[in-house]
Amino acid sequence: MRISRLTKNQRKGAVLPIVTVCLVGLLAFVALAIDIGMLAVARTQCQAAADISALASARTLNGETGNNYNSARAQALTIATNNTILTSPITAAQVTERSIGVYRYDTTLQRFLGVFGPNETTPPTLQTNEGYGAVRVRIMTSQPTYFARVLGINSMNVGAV
Q: Among 10, 78, 88, 160, which is most exposed with the fewest C-beta within 10 angstroms?
């Protein structure tokens, strides 16, 4: 039996399939690095917009009769739509929830819980001197991907409360 050595001419096309397979894996890692990073930035900006919107809305609640409830909901929407996510303005359709409720003390858990009832209102009880003070704003958006399109992922949902 004779063992022969392979010459350069016999291995000419062997590199091309290996590079092609490795390139798909490399693009998958690039998609993870860039697209997931962009989604993390979008999530952070979405959270900041929801937080500032809820805080501004809570500042509008004044403790008088009706607690300025309708103005607080309008303020939440106005502040949210004044923000951007990855240079795209937030639209009113992306602000999916603007709930106003009350904080009530739960003796079992020994902490205050925000109570948001049906139809986005849970009226405070006059017997306990409660007032509206809890605001919840939810922002949801769909962000396009760049490199993950190679893997068939064209967009991902991002949101914050």
A: 10
